[in-house]
Amino acid sequence: MRRVATVTNVFGMPPSENGSAERPDPGAQTPGGTGRADHEQVVFCQDHRSGLRAIISIYSTALGPALGGTRFYPYASEDAALADALRLSTAMAYKNALAGLDHGGGKAVIIGDPARIKTEPLLRAYGRFVASLGGRYVTACDVGTRSEDMDIIARESRYVTGRTTANGGAGDSSVLTALGVMHGMRAAAEHAWGTTSLRGRTVGVEGVGKVGHRLVDHLVEAGADVVICDVSAVAVEAVRARHPQVRAVADVDALVAAEPDVLAPCALGGTLTEDVANKLTAAVPVTMTDVLTDQPLTTGGSLQTGSLTIGF
């Protein structure tokens, strides 16, 4: 007998006094906080047989079905996973709107180490949860998930994008993400320095995983002086094996101390703390919502510092 996943709705968008479902500007809240959430729906998903524990967060469907990737990560606690899902789904609402897509903002997180617990039964159980939302949420790849995983999830749900090219999808989305970040850098460079060239500019890249390592390839080709950091020594060595001229430092503090002209946070998020922002020394104040800290400096605005920061 086919098992049907169930969904528990733990938050609902509260109506205003006049009966409408007005949402305040998220800049007035803490996107990663676990207090009052201005999200339409947040669901906790659990499948004991496969070991799945997941959270799907839908910030808004005002523009269409909520679209956002599934992050598979060994969070320290369920609260930490919930905070990440809330923050990321809020960011996705803005990014989808800015891109002119007929999609609202959503995000999902699966709790656990993908290297240890990711299995077909777990992904298919997750797919049944996605399907049970009836199209309110469309999932895709993120940290810890790949196009091949989307193919498995799609065996249980039609609301999946980012599948492999062999199965009619666009393949690895990090290819286009890295290219988009690179074009963002060039546009900001033209605004700051009157040229799209990054030759001779120092660019700091935090995180050299799926997106970051491809971004480094573009930057090296463009003649930039690249400085990187990553929590994974294996990821750092893989980049330096391809590009020996790339400098590696221990952490974000050391990356900022290298005084980059451009900073590209390609890691999990929360990079732009007040302390980091105050130390940045580049030329154009730009932030991307995926890298906002749990104590946001701004939302949809600019940092009070002279830093050119390109995220994704």
Protein architecture, described:
The protein has 312 residues and is an alpha/beta fold. The chain folds into two domains: 8-167, 3-Layer(aba) Sandwich (Rossmann fold); 174-291, Rossmann fold, CATH 3.40.50.720. Helices cover 31% and strands 17% of the residues. The strands form two sheets. Strands 1, 2, 3, 4, 5, 6 and 7 form a seven-stranded mixed β-sheet that branches. A four-stranded parallel β-sheet has the order 10-9-8-11. Helix 3 (120-132) packs across helix 4 and helix 5 packs across helix 6 (212-221). The longest helix has 21 residues, at 78-98. The radius of gyration is 20 Å and the shape is globular. Mean pLDDT is 83; it is low at 1-8, 10-35 and 284-312.
In short:
With 312 residues, this protein is α/β, with parallel strands linked by helices.
